[in-house]
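User: I'm curious whether this sequence folds into something compact or stays loose and floppy. Could you predict its structure so I can see for myself?
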Amino acid sequence: MKKLWLIFAQTTTIGLAIWFLLTLLKPEWRMPNMAPAPVVTVKESQAPASAPAELSYSLAAKKAKPSVVNIFTSQQARPSRNPWLNDPLFRRFFGDRLPQGEDAQRPSSLGSGVLVSEQGYIVTNNHVVDAADQIEVALADGRTATAKLIGSDPDTDIAVIKIDLPNLPAISFADVDKVEIGDVVLAIGNPFGVGQTVTMGIISALGRSELGINTFENFIQTDAAINPGNSGGALVDTRGNLLGINTAIYSKTGGSLGIGFAIPATTVKQIMEALIKEGSVTRGWLGVEVQDVTPELAASFQLQTAKGALIAGVVRSGPAAKAGIRPGDVLLSINGKEVANSAKMLDIISALKPEQSVPVLVVRDGQQVELKAEVGKRPKFNRQ
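Assistant: Here's the prediction. I'll summarize afterward.
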C-alpha cells in the first residue's frame, strides 16, 4: 500500500510539473474558455526619444548683442519766455540770465539703437532722438561716439543716426515673411538705463494696427519683456537676426505687462534706405479725412458689404478736391486696389508717388463713379 501511494505521489508531482511547463509556454491553455485580451494600439512619436531640446539661446544673444547700442541724448536749455527778458533796460542790468555749465543741459534720456551697417548707420526710434541737441552712443564693447542725425520719420517712429568708428558689428536682417506666431524671440536693449539686457518670449501676433501709436502701423506683437529704455532696441530670432525694432509697450504703469510692439524689419529697411538716401520719406497724399464703413453706414449708402472708407472731409484745393471727390463719397478702390478700411486706404495712398495720376472708384448717391486724381506729396504733420 505504501508503495502504491509513493508511485501516485511521484506521478502527480511529475504531472503538475509538466502542466506548469506547458502553461508557461502556452498561457492560453490556463483558461481555454475565456476570450483573448484586447490589444490597445497607441500612437508613437516619430521623434527619437533623445531629441535635443534647445534650452539656451546664448549663441543668438552673443551674435546680436554687439550690434545693439545704448543712446544718450541731451537738450540745451532754452531761453526763458519771460517778457521781461525782451526789455533792453532789464537786459542791461541783469544780462540774458541763461543757465551755464551743467545747468545748460537738460537731463539725458536713455534709449537703444541697432547698428545696421558697417558704415556706422544706426536705426532707432524717432521719439528717442526727437529734439535732441546732442546724441551720444555707447557700444557693447565699451567704445563711445557722438552721433549725427541722418533723418527721421515720425509717421513710423523710425530715425537713423550715424557714428564714425572702425570695425562696427552690423546686425543681419531676418526674413520676416517666414515668421509665425509662436516663434521664440529675444528683445535686446537698455531698460531703465541699467545696461544691456536680453529678455525672451514668443511672437504673440502679427500685423497689429489701429493702435493709435503711429500713423502707419504693422507691428509684431511679443510677450518678451520690453520696458522703458528698450525703445529702439532689437527684436531678434533664435539665430540672432533682426526681426524688428522695439518701439512701444502696452502699460498703465510704465512697466512691461507682456504686450510689446516692434516695427518689422521689412518696414525698417524701407524707411532706413529712404532716410539715408534722401533724408526724409516721400509718401503720396490725397487730402481727405475718412472713417471706416460700418454695417449701418453700408446699408445707408446702399453698399453690398461693409467695406471702403467714408469721406468725412476734403482739404480745400487738395488733390482729392481737385479730382472732384466730395464728403459723403465712399472710396472703394484706388489705382485698382481695393480699399477695405481707412487704414488700408492710408497704406495704398502713401505708397503712391507724388504727381502720379490714378483712378479712384467711389460710391455717390448709390452709384459707382470713377474719378481721376493726381497724387500729392504728404505734408509733415506735428504729432502730439
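Summary: The chain has three domains: 65-90+107-162, 176-277, 284-377. The first strand starts at residue 68 and ends at 74.
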